[in-house]
């Protein structure tokens, strides 16, 4: 599948290396509150909440923080009222960018996102201008396997549970599936002792745009700036850049 791993791998590496761990925690906790508020606060009855709880566990977020995030959703604790807004646009080289914004201040979010697009030579588009390029898929990223499980065994288990594709990339294994098979695969691989470092339904580009040099560097800085914005919950993009550029572009 085109573009299956580039941005997913950057996001995962950024999360492991992120010096602003509190920012990452805040976004995950916001997502927990959002999913628990608009669905069931019980992850057994809410697949979206179950997915973000997996991310929270992988990020080592304290259980008490997770509990409070769910209590804010149920009204047991006071909290901000968030709304979810999609943004679409283009970056350097015509790369499609799809944003999932979750904010308690629509005007602040719009101004800051527009500023980032303009600052890096991009531009916002109209609704539907780039969304058609992406398809929602389940994604699992696995780094370590139990001693009694090899990659071939895991691949066969995933395929039997409904996986569409399995990719090896450096030290990771990625499993791609339709969202309807997400929970079955998650439960199945956990039953054999495999714990993914990332498990989520995400948007994967069906086609990619190859860019290099200064354009690629500018694009990666733009995406990093968007990803670091407090109101931007998720960033999806259909770029393909040289592997040597896939480093943490966060500026000091």
Report on this structure.
This protein is an alpha+beta fold and 252 residues long. Among the domains are: 16-74, Arc Repressor Mutant, subunit A, CATH 1.10.10; 133-205, YebC, transcriptional regulation domain (Alpha-Beta Plaits), CATH 3.30.70. The chain is 41% helix and 23% strand. The protein contains 8 helices and 10 strands. The radius of gyration is 18 Å and the shape is globular.
Q: Which topology of the domain at 133-205 does CATH recognise?
A: Alpha-Beta Plaits
Helix content: 40-55%
User: Rg from C-alpha positions?
Assistant: 18 Å
Largest sheet, if any? Answer: 4 strands, antiparallel
Give a quick summary of the entry.
It contains 8 helices and 10 strands. It has helices at 6-17, 21-38, 47-58, 63-74, 106-119, 151-160, 182-191, 213-228; strands at residues 83-90, 96-103, 123-124, 134-142, 163-169, 172-177, 198-205, 209-210, 232-237, 239-240.
Secondary structure topology:
Elements: H1 6-17, H2 21-38, H3 47-58, H4 63-74, E1 83-90, E2 96-103, H5 106-119, E3 123-124, E4 134-142, H6 151-160, E5 163-169, E6 172-177, H7 182-191, E7 198-205, E8 209-210, H8 213-228, E9 232-237, E10 239-240
Parallel strand pairs: 8-10
Antiparallel strand pairs: 1-2, 1-3, 2-9, 4-6, 4-7, 5-6
Helix pairs in contact: 2-3, 2-4
